[in-house]
Amino acid sequence: MMRYFATLVLFLFSISSFSQEIDVDVLKNIDSDQINELLNQEDTLQSSNKDDEEEELTLKQIQFIPSQKFGFDFIRTSPTSISASTELPIPGDYRISLKDELEVILSGTKQAIFTLPVRLDGSVLFPELGSVSVLGESFAEVKTKLRNLIKNSYVGVNLDLSIGDLSAKKITIIGAVNAPGSYLVNPFTTISNALAYSGGVQEYASLRKIKVLKADGRTIIFDLYDLLINGDTKNDVAVDAGDIIILEPTTSFVNVKGSVLRPLTYEYLPNDTFQDLINFAMGPTEDADGDSLWVSYLEDGFKKTKTVNYSEKIFQTGVYEILIGNLITKLNLDLLIQGSGVENKYHNISDYSSFSELMESLIFSDDIYPFYALYAQNGDGTTRKLTAFSLSDPETYKNLPLENNSTITFFDRASYERNYVIQTDLVQVRLGSMDLSLPIKGKIKPKDIYDFFGSDAILNLDSVVTLTQDDSSLNSFDESFDSNKILGIRFPIKDFDKVTVSIRGDVQNPGRYTLPKNTTLDELYELMGGFQQDAYQDGIFVSREDVKAKQRASVKKAKRILTDALIQDSNNSVATSVDIQQVIALADDIDYTGRISGDFSDNSDLANEFILQEGDYIFVPTFSKTITVHGEVLNASTFLHDSGRSYKDYVELSGGYSEFADKSSVYVVKANGESFQLNRGFFKKNYYPEPGDIIIVPRDLSSLDLLPIVSAATQIISNIAFSSAALNSLD
Predict the structure, then answer these.
(1) Do the bridges between strand 181-185 and strand 385-389 make them parallel or antiparallel, or are there none, so unpaired?
(2) Is residue 560 domain-shared with residue 621, that is, in the same domain?
(3) Average pLDDT, the chain
(4) What's CA 502's distance to the chain center, in Å?
């Protein structure tokens, strides 16, 4: 008995390896315990061969290259999962397979829940009612059968049926496919889905005459074009266990090209017309010539062409290619402004007298790239001329003609952050740590590039280098260059271990110098080669940026005090208000000197101890033989020095004091920047100016009804303004 049983087990699994359809008569002599043992052994065999089964089901990874034949890519890209979700509704035509699990819920006078697996004999064992055959029947048929059984067996009992676990189906795919063979597929798999399990189809495969051989002997012919072109799923039925899908070969292909929306190669059937093929290609394009339908065909060993009617059947002509011609269109468009940082729209060129006027009418965003734009002149559509110009240099576009059918393209900052590719007119720019390839046209200053892009690093703008075809230019931040000759621009990062200073005037080698920190002024004198013969060392002018900042802050504060006084004090006379307004206006015109006073002559104690700082400016004047008078005199002037004249004499030479002069507060600014007030102490009687002296006559504020703080603010602005004007006249 055991030998018979073992042989039967081997026989059963040999059958199941080729088909899931089992003759129930073979099993009629086996009792239920033996059937359950068979099921357990099948589970064990499937578990032990799991790796082999997964290897069989896994498709080879094929590099995806789009096919020129319609529908082939659909098969290659369809999913091939064999698992099924039981949360989806079960269609009524679903066929019950071995190892499906039916879930039965009884309600009413009898309440119970059963899970009934489909056994190898194709039946389920219903408690109290016995074995019920369900294999191969539809879900709807099984539900009706079980409800009738319950109705005949019980009173007042209702039945609800669902499927708790769906088993995969084994099908076979052969013919013109890449990987013919048997596959376990998802129980909901349709004919079109099943094709994906075969790894794609051969180039000669027919998608319109797909055969499906059913286990009951029926043959179904499926046209995949019904689904892909018309969305018709009526014939795309679910496959059953044991189905064999055959893809037949065919040579009935025709290439549809020209003015169609989807030019590809399509398969045709005997009754297809040329109109059908054009419809397969989604119809003609907008510019298609509907009267121009050409075909290429073979005849007597020659390739020939001819025109055909849309209603002709393609099968009768033997064509291999269909072409729909196109209509020629000519351009008659207004000028188009497009791109980034500008309003994209057409412009009627008759509204503008010149290209420059058009540019002046445009409104740009703050991020518009000003150094490069493109003007494409298309003429009548047959010619094209491309001209680059720069918004920052009107000379590059003032002579350009305005033409219809043309396009002007602008760019913005983001264009270059996205590495927008322009291959011509490029200038290499090293902006701190950034390397940029910038299209630039026309004249440009390095300063323009810095102002537009900025930098996240602190740059040494006094050491910008511009390399041209002719030369290299140092300290070129504010110089203008022809972009056609620029090879590169470098903005170095500031080296905080060094300082850059400037020295001008009567020295041997004036210019900018980058020096180590802690360099003294005397060391700079030695480095630049000393002074010229006529250098006036007593009048050396030293300016520092932080001193300028303090002067600006003082004037700003004083100006605010005066402005507040002008607004708040309504008792001021008209004359007083006018005076304050004049002082405020004077503050707006101050050119701050940032001067540090002292004896900065060669080898002086101060020059030996004075440590240079970033941005210091030193000016060495030529020996001065003049006296300058500034302030409240009738005619501020500069005179040749006369040792016999006192300061009062020079005031008289300047036309004398004005009516607003404060005669008691006249002071002198010496050539080295030091100052002292006259009419006090040693100089109370008189003072004879020395060469290079500047006599300042301040304004008398005692006649004005001013608060002390307002008076002080006025004095600050006046003194800084007069001193600045006097020094600038000597520079």
Answers:
(1) unpaired
(2) yes
(3) 82
(4) 43
Q: Is the full-model pTM beyond 0.70?
A: no
CA distance to 94, 311, 571, 710, 711, per residue, from 564 (Å): 92, 93, 13, 9, 13
Residue (of 512, 510, 508, 519) closest to 477 by Cα position: 512
Whether residues 687 and 611 fall in one domain? yes
Residue 73, domain CATH:
3.10.560.10
Q: How many other β-carbons are positioned within 10 Å of the β-carbon of residue 388?
A: 19
Question: What is the residue range of 213's domain?
Answer: 57-79+169-247
Whether residues 70 and 157 fall in one domain: no
pLDDT of residue 45: 39
Asked if 110 and 217 sit in the same domain, the reply is no
Residue 597 domain flag: yes
Instruction: Kindly tell me the burial class for residue 731, based on how many C-beta atoms sit within 10 Å of its own C-beta (0-12, 13-18, 19 or more).
Output: exposed
Burial of residue 639, with CB atoms counted within 10 A of its CB: 0-12 exposed, 13-18 middle, 19 or more buried: middle
**Does residue 707 surpass a pLDDT of 60?**
no
CA–CA distance, 263 with 159 (Å, rounded to integer): 56
68 with 209, same domain: the answer is yes
pLDDT in tens, 195-217: 988 888 999 999 999 999 988 88
Tally of structural domains, the chain: 7
DSSP states of 20-57: S---GGGGTTS-HHHHHHHHHHHHHHHHHTHHHHHHHH
Q: How much is the average pLDDT of 591-618?
A: 90
Q: Which distant-in-sequence residues (6+ apart) come within 8 Å of 594 by Cβ? A: 543, 544, 545, 546, 547, 548, 549, 551, 617
